[in-house]
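Q: What would this chain look like folded?
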Amino acid sequence: MEKKYFDKFNGEDVCLYAISNGRVEAEICDLGAEINALMVDGVNITLGFDSVEDYLQSGSFAGATIGRVANRIAGGKFILNGKTYLLNNNEGNNHLHGGNAGFDKRIFKVLRHTANSIELQYVSADMEENYPGELKLNVTYTVENDALTIRYAAVSNKDTLWNPTNHSYFNLNGEANGDCKNIILQLNADYYTPADGELIPTGKREAVKGTVFDFNAAKKIGADFGHKDLVATNGYDHNYILKGEHAAHAESEVTGIKMDVYTDMPCIQLYTGGALKTSRGKSRTYTHWAGFCLEPQYCPNAINAEGFKKPVLPAGQPMEHYIKYQF
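A: My prediction, written as structure tokens:
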């Protein structure tokens, strides 16, 4: 049960907390309730940085808890209970991953820390980033039975939006070992949501069968890189509609590490790091495709789209979601 100093952020100490059980060890940072490192059989399989400044300069959201709403909200605008809210736009015309100072840039309070688990809490003020309601969020990381499970629990005193995810970049070959293009991936999804040039879904569902978006049969992540449908995103940055709670399977032929992702969220974003800025990582310089993200979520911009489950958290009604990485 180890705690150690990491850095400072806005004059406050930022610390790292180790949790472990068997083959799996995690290092959790209280800034952004983020995964700073995830070790399987002694191999670190997530991208990370050695300082707060490096995290911020990378613009990567690496390992962070995302909120209040993961992914994009078109125009930073939504209507809830007949009232229009205008959020802070931090990606061109749109609101991304919680805005200018989303949960990735907030220090969480550690409520409990044991040998294999940690619970952190952040209280988001009413109208923070222009979201209604005071939102209390608890994030619990637990390592057991060769798995890392994240549990999110939130409650708000007003109706609000809530769509959490974790933004880890995985490289099952090892954080220090090249790009992720040769990682084998399988996604349990028959449909994806096409998006416009600003990565806002068009509102359609399209079948993946017969397209480069089909991962129902496992294939290498980079197998279709360069295809015309992937040029604009320099790889994948696409939302898939999940068939069930077993969302994905990934494995490395280099290390033999295998990972299955489970979640109760309706969708998952596959992002293969095509927009990663060149940045100084833990053991090397990261650039395009250094890692891939599997971000369980509600459909991007779901609050403004017809036919998709809305990420609405009713006042006074606790809500929970989970993500599990099984190795």
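The chain has one domain: 2-326.
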